[in-house]
Amino acid sequence: MKRYFIMFVIFLVALSLPGTLFHYLSWAGIKPDLPMLWAIYLALHHRPSQGIGYGFIVGLFTDLYIGRYIGLNTITFAVVGFLISFLQQRWYKENIPLTMVLVFIATALGQTLLVLIAKAAGLHWFVGEALQIIIGIAFYNSLLVPITYPLIHRAFTSGCLYKKTEFEQR
Amino acid sequence: MGKKLNPMGIAVVIFALVLITMTAIRLTGMGSEFPNPVGQAMHRILVPLERTIWYIGDGIKDNLRAIFSFRTVKAENEELRRQVEQLKSDNLELKQKILAGLRYEELDKGVFQSPTLDKYEKIGAVVINRNPTAWYQTITVNKGSKDGVKVNDPVVANLGLVGKVISVYPTSADILLILDGEGQVGALVRNNKGKAIYGVLSGTYKREGRLTSSGSLEMDFRQDDEVNVGDLVLTSGLGGVYPKDIPIGVVVGTRLDPSGLLKTALIDPIVDFDSLEEVYLVSIPEGS
Questions:
Q1: What is the pLDDT along chain B (288 residues), one digit of tens a residue?
Q2: What is the value of ipTM here, to two decimals?
Q3: How close, in Å, is residue B207 to chain A by CA atoms?
């Protein structure tokens, strides 16, 4: 229970920072997509069936917080969560540069999917410079990996987010 | 041995999910009102945190600015000291006039004077969050439904139009800036002969140079419409959201359409959106 509470608190922080702290650190209007980064981190430490679930929940809460276009982030994050948790079984999770590459690819795919779904749903998004924005967000997210990932990875493998196996619980 | 997955079943589930998502996205678009207790609870938790980060950030930004422009501030200070001596002598003479000025200030409460806006109640609010994602041009302010804010209320700053309210929570509200392509404004241009030309103004939300996230505004006209650089753009009052005659911006250039039928006016907004800290939410009574 405590584990889920900590996950939710980290998610709340990830939701509020892009509009506040990263307003000052934005580059040409581009800021990281921290909720997506958190969904990626969660998926990196879970099985595909759980990764899709975490992606779905993080996306749904992000949509509810933003308060419009409910479903847009939900489905995007679920797909990203599934892809990442599928890939992580064949990936070196301890390697920071490789994780940066993974986060870059996952964020770029996620943001592309976001734009495609938005356009398919008929939203009047300005997509003239979508490619620059997508690459910008993906680059920013991957830059945050060396700062955030070691802490998160340690928390998942031996810290407060570590999930005990049934054997250990006994 | 795991259960075999039925490809047909998976396809049906994916199709149903896509259909549900598309419907949900359409039903919960900009300006739509739907019950969102979870979102409201999250806003209630996060607003104090966001407000604190915002105040700290502003403080750091202001102090850094003072340090980086130290030489200018020092030179300015010396110049001002000289002027103070001169002004001291003028001071006595002006005191009478200042007292008269103060009486006028009582009448002028700081919001720009517009005959159409004066009859509405205005709620002052502080910006506590900007663009939660890179895809929208929105701000969040610290006033919500408890203060009487409603969806679609127009938002103005001390100089001109800022945007409209798109989501309301008990203690906060989201505002879509006119720079965003999602929000369009019924506008008119007054040319040098005072003639009004009506049109629809839309934001482009383009990115310009480094470290700025400014969007710009555009408006389409017929090619023979007389629109010139320097003409003032105001709200037209058509469209039902914005009252008439709120200043929006100034025409800074025109661009011809390749087809030769239309021309696009590029409009520089009057409000400086990047340094926006306080706004006024205009409360328009239902059915007016």
A1: 456 678 888 888 888 888 888 888 888 887 777 888 888 888 888 888 888 888 888 888 778 777 777 788 888 888 888 888 777 767 766 665 665 455 445 444 544 556 666 778 888 888 888 876 777 788 899 889 888 898 889 998 877 889 999 888 888 999 988 888 777 888 988 877 777 888 888 877 644 433 344 567 888 888 888 888 888 888 888 877 888 888 888 888 888 877 778 888 888 888 888 777 788 898 887 765
A2: 0.78
A3: 6
Smallest CA–CA distance, residue B86 to chain A, in Å, is: 41
Q: In CATH, what is the architecture of A2-169?
A: Orthogonal Bundle (1.10)
Cβ atoms of B118 and B284 within 8 Å: the answer is: no
* Number of domain units in chain B: 1
What is the CB neighbour count within 10 angstroms for residue A67? 22
**Residue B248 lies inside a defined structural domain of this protein:** yes
Which CATH number fits the domain that encloses residue B266? 2.40.10.350
Q: Is A129 touching B (CB cutoff 8 A)?
A: yes
Please name the amino acid found at residue A122: G
Instruction: Spell out which residues of chain B touch residue A128, defining contact as CB-CB under 8 Å.
Output: 206
Is there a contact between B22 and A120 if contact means CB atoms under 8 Å apart? yes
> Which residue segment(s) compose the domain that B232 sits in?
184-270
Provide the terminal-to-terminal Cα distance of chain A, rounded to the nearest Å: 17
